TrEMBL record:
GO molecular function: unfolded protein binding
Name of the featured protein: Periplasmic chaperone for outer membrane proteins Skp
Keywords associated with the record: Coiled coil, Signal
Organism name: Aquiflexum balticum DSM 16537
Pfam families: OmpH
InterPro entries in alphabetical order: Chaperone_Skp (IPR005632), Skp_dom_sf (IPR024930)
GO CC aspect terms: cytosol
Lineage: Bacteria, Pseudomonadati, Bacteroidota, Cytophagia, Cytophagales
Amino acid sequence: MERRNILLFLLLLSSTAFIGNPVTAQKFGYIDSEFLLNKHPDYKVVQSELEALSTQWKKEAQQLEKEIKDMYASLQAEEVLLTEEMYQDKLNTIKEKQKEAVAFNNRVFGVNGQYYQKQAELLQPLQSKIYDAIDRVCKRNNLAMLFDKAAGPLMIYTDPRHDYSEFVLEELGLENK
């Protein structure tokens, strides 16, 4: 009898805990940051500025390569007229020019090169605007987590009902065209 009372008491205690403090589900959603960036007019400006810089730097790199090829052609044409010492001097000059070209490519297009630094510098204000809009949308819709569909192959399936990209566009003052 006493055991039955304890069980009844525990059952009553556990049911009041759920009634007094109901469990709520967390809301999740996702966005497509690539979609958002492509819809933003500032992104097109950033892309055109980066393209202009990239074209300029590629021309400089091509010019260096052309100079190296011309130096090799000149060396081959003069090879029979040069002494061994003169040949080695010209060959060393060409090798230095090749090192200069490689250093230029690494400095500009390398992992932490000028191109990627400029890209980060130009995109940072736009990414901040988008992040702020995402933050407001998440708070307004009580989202616990928001995933980025464009961030990688992590999302295998997405239900369009949980896509908040349009809300972020709206928050940014852009309309989906």
